């Protein structure tokens, strides 16, 4: 048995594919590729696939990570080429790497958030809103989970937030958030928090630029 980590990009119209459908798309490609897949045991065996974290619907990504298990070792380029034959436009295996015996988990992720701005908003206005958010000792929000309302502190998960570039009517922000067993911060929640200081911000695109891993 050999475990491999797949780095998957998700772009264009594929951003509207849900996480569950992305899983099914990869499972279908694995079956059609005739790779020596390892299956789970039980009455309904399915290919051993696990995504390290989910991507919110409507976001694009350079680096979704999925772990697959094969019954025998194969060269990484061959795995990538055979899988890409059966993936739809917008979804692509960018890299394949063989894993050692140690388990890996997602530690943090970097998002690029594109926001639209009215003409009267200046670079300093955006920087000031970011500064106020980062300097706030806490920022509580309410989140609906399984029919219950839960209050969380966004500041527990936001590691960094900064202005990447600014143009008239548009800006790109870099958001680094922790991924923990007890939760994380969603990009849209952070933008809503910033809107408390700068209501004119309007989120138009979310892109995962990096996913940082660590050994469990």
Structure characterization notes:
- The chain has 216 residues and is of the alpha+beta class.
- The chain has helices at 19-33, 76-84, 123-135, 187-194; strands spanning 2-10, 49-51, 60-70, 91-98, 104-116, 140-145, 148-153, 158-167, 170-178, 202-215.
- It has two domains: 2-101, Alpha-Beta Plaits (2-Layer Sandwich), CATH 3.30.70.580; 106-215, 2-Layer Sandwich (Alpha-Beta Plaits).
- Helix content is 21%, strand content 41%.
- Strands 1, 2, 3, 4, 5, 8, 9 and 10 form an eight-stranded mixed β-sheet that branches.
- The model has no long low-confidence stretch (mean pLDDT 94).
The shape is: elongated
- CATH top level class name of the largest domain: Alpha Beta
CATH T-level fold name of the largest domain:
Alpha-Beta Plaits
Radius of gyration: 20 Å
The amount of beta strand, in percent, is 35-45%
Helix-strand sequence: EHEEHEEHEEEEHE
**Alpha plus pi helix count:** 4
Q: Whole-number average pLDDT? A: 94
Distance between the termini: 20 Å
Number of strands: 10
Overall tally of domains: 2
Task: Summarize the biggest pleated sheet.
Answer: 8 strands, mixed
Could you give a quick summary of the protein structure above?
Helices cover 21% and strands 41% of the residues. It is α+β, with helices and mostly antiparallel strands.
Summarize the topology:
Blueprint: E1 2-10, H1 19-33, E2 49-51, E3 60-70, H2 76-84, E4 91-98, E5 104-116, H3 123-135, E6 140-145, E7 148-153, E8 158-167, E9 170-178, H4 187-194, E10 202-215
Primary descriptors:
4 helices; Alpha-Beta Plaits; two-stranded antiparallel ribbon; 216 residues; alpha+beta; 2 domains; 8-stranded mixed beta sheet; 41% strand
């Amino acid at each position: 048995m050999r475990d491999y980590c797949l780095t998957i990009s998700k772009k264009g119209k594929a951003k509207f594919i849900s996480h569950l459908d992305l899983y099914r798309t990869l499972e279908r490609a694995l079956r059609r590729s005739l790779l020596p897949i390892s299956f789970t045991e039980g009455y309904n065996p399915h290919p051993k696939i696990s995504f390290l974290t989910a991507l919110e619907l409507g976001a694009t990504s350079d680096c979704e990570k999925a772990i697959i298990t094969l019954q025998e070792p194969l060269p990484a380029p061959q795995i990538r080429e055979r899988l890409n034959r059966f993936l739809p436009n917008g979804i692509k295996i960018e890299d394949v790497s063989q894993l050692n015996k140690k388990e890996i988990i997602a530690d943090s992720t970097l998002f690029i958030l594109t926001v639209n701005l009215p003409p009267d908003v200046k670079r300093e206005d955006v920087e000031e809103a970011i500064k106020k958010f980062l300097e706030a000792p806490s920022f509580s929000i309410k989140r609906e989970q399984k029919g219950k309302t839960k209050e969380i502190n966004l500041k527990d998960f936001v590691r960094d937030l900064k202005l990447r570039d600014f143009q008239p009517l548009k800006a790109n922000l870099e958001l680094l958030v922790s991924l923990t067993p007890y939760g994380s911060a969603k990009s849209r929640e952070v933008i809503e928090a910033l809107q408390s200081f700068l209501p004119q911000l309007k989120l138009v695109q979310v892109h995962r630029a990096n996913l940082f891993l660590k050994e469990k």
